[in-house]
Structure formats: structure tokens, C-alpha cells
Task: inverse folding
């Protein structure tokens, strides 16, 4: 099961500084386990950031993004109380979605 | 709705029906971008191939793309990279690690409301140029920064 995301959104002037921590192994498919067997790739492929229901950022990722990815984004024209929604989808079809309000 | 979109995409093929649908206002270009992960570009094994797949075969060098990355990274498993584009109307930012087996690490599309800025951690197998491609005003621009890695982040 997907671990919950940690999101922090703070307003600086009219720009929201959004930090997201996604708990995910981000396996490259290039590593081997103790027995020499290749560990299959397992990584987040797509992320979406929505502000008040409207998509503002769409990201596509590869295996090269580090384990437990940490992203920062900046959203202009954001206000206190705006609804922020972040979601991801990985190569196995697992999904996670979280909602927060800008403080 | 989603099924309709898939059906349209499937049938469009090389027939140009897709372009016609766009022109008719049935589909906004962004819907098409959102239709999936850019497999060709992510599967590319060389920088040139990846750039070609992104449609950015010969981007212009630009000082308006600012890459903040360490000169020396001790651990290639997590190298913090910050990218800001000061190019007007920046629509997307792609981050490529030139010497990784698959150079394209990530691509972000910024839709109205998002600043063309991103900070992320990437894995680097060895010392390499970090190349950023930004799309702005229908053109592609690029900037590069070298990062030296002490311990690679892709091995067992």
C-alpha cells in the first residue's frame, strides 16, 4: 500500500511554496537482491498538482528520481485557504492522493 | 469521458483526425499532453535520442535557465537539483542526466498558475552534466551544469 504523502504549503506574498514528500521505493530495475536476482522496476511515473480543483502542474518521472521523492513547487496567485490536491501514479498502477489547504 | 478520449486517440493514428479534432475544439492540446507518460523519451538511451523524442533536437543555449546543483555530490543516490526558468511563457521543464543509462529523469508541465520552478532529488550513476530543457513560446532552450559524484547512485 502506498504511504501517505507529506505536504507543506506556505504562502510567501502571493506565491505558495509547496513541498511534497512521497514515500516510494523508486526501484530502478538495475539493482540486484542478495541472491543476484534483479529487483523489478517500481517507480512513480506521473504526478499531478491541483489548485482549487484546477491542474497546475503535471510531472512525468523516471526511475532516476530518488527514493522517497521530495519535490518543491511554486504556485502564483495562491491565497490562504486555497485547496491543494496532489496525486501520483506508479508503474504498477498504485495511486496516492492527498488534499491540504494553503496556510 | 476518459474512454472517449482514448478511443479518439486510438483512431486518430496518422490520419490527421487528431489535428482535425483539435481544430474543431473537441480536444484542447493540454488534454493530449496529459494523455500519458512520454515513453519514447524516457526509454531513450542517449541524450541525442531523448532530445529528439522530446521534439527538442537542437535547443538554443539560454542564460535564463538557472540550475542550482552541487558541484560535488558525495552521494549519487540523491542529488538535489533546483531549476528556475526566467524565460517568459515557460511551459515545461525537463531534467536530463547526460550519463545515466536513461538520461531523461523528469519532465514537468506548468499550466497557468504554476511558476516555472522545480526542486527534486535525482540519482546519478556517475559524474555527469545535468541538462535542462525548457519549452517557452513554442521553442526549446537549454542550460547545463556539471555535477561530480563521489559514490554513484544506481548500483547495487
Result:
Amino acid at each position: 500500500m502506498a504511504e501517505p504523502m507529506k505536504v507543506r504549503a506556505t504562502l510567501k506574498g502571493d506565491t505558495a511554496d509547496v513541498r511534497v514528500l512521497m514515500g516510494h521505493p523508486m526501484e530502478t530495475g538495475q539493482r540486484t537482491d542478495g541472491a543476484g536476482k534483479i529487483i523489478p522496476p517500481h517507480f512513480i511515473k506521473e504526478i499531478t498538482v491541483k489548485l482549487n480543483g484546477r491542474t497546475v502542474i503535471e510531472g512525468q518521472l523516471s526511475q532516476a528520481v530518488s527514493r522517497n521523492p521530495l519535490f518543491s513547487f511554486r504556485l502564483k496567485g495562491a491565497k490562504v485557504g486555497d485547496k491543494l490536491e496532489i496525486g501520483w501514479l506508479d508503474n504498477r498502477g498504485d495511486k496516492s492522493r492527498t488534499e491540504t489547504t494553503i496556510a | 469521458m476518459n474512454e472517449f478520449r482514448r478511443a479518439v486517440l486510438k483512431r486518430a493514428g496518422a490520419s490527421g483526425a487528431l489535428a482535425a479534432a483539435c481544430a474543431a475544439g473537441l480536444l484542447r492540446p493540454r488534454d493530449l499532453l496529459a494523455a500519458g507518460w512520454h515513453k519514447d523519451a524516457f526509454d531513450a538511451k542517449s541524450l541525442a535520442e531523448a532530445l529528439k523524442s522530446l521534439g527538442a533536437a537542437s535547443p538554443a543555449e539560454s542564460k535564463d535557465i538557472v540550475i542550482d546543483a552541487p558541484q560535488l555530490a558525495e552521494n549519487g543516490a540523491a542529488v538535489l537539483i533546483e531549476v528556475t526558468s526566467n524565460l517568459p511563457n515557460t511551459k515545461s521543464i525537463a531534467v536530463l542526466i547526460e550519463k545515466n543509462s536513461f538520461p531523461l529523469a523528469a519532465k514537468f508541465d506548468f499550466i497557468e498558475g504554476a511558476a516555472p520552478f522545480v526542486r527534486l532529488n535525482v540519482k546519478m550513476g556517475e559524474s555527469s552534466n545535468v541538462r535542462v530543457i525548457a519549452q517557452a513560446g513554442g521553442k526549446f532552450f537549454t542550460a547545463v551544469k556539471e555535477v561530480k559524484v563521489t559514490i554513484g547512485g544506481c548500483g547495487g
